[in-house]
């Protein structure tokens, strides 16, 4: 996420109970929440290591950071281990996490003396026929994606509706009926105690949300109501 990337959320706050009942959100925020599910653990820890993490994962992360490269296998780097790239791609320009840069594209080689089908990424490798595998192969990328899908903004969910995000991050399409049902579910007696507030969601809030999502069932309350009420 870039420093100037923010989206707006409309919170419905129970001022008497000091809690966020839900947030009205667009696709950008919901895409961000879904993207969390695709993040490797190493990426999580990279974002949150300066926060108060519960458990020992931060210590494990730091110890690998301090481990000499001489102990790693030749085909491994610390960036591969500590800043892995999500296997699920998605164009999220507004809430693009500061992930590690894409891995360098490898070159592949074959033997030019036989047609046994063997391939390697190391030009010094020796083919079973005892010849070196030095003939570079040409990589053919898959066909481009559906242009219609790209034009609709990418990400994971459609942007034609507003979404309701609960305090515990449950996501549903927004509807008047579900809002009324929710008020009954949480036993809200005094409608006058309800307050709508528009808040910004940017880098700082994203890190707080990642941290809170690991240990809380009232994530929106923890992120947005601290010091507000």
TrEMBL record:
<protein>
    <recommendedName>
        <fullName>DUF674 domain-containing protein</fullName>
    </recommendedName>
</protein>
<dbReference type="InterPro" id="IPR007750">
    <property type="entry name" value="DUF674"/>
</dbReference>
<dbReference type="Pfam" id="PF05056">
    <property type="entry name" value="DUF674"/>
</dbReference>
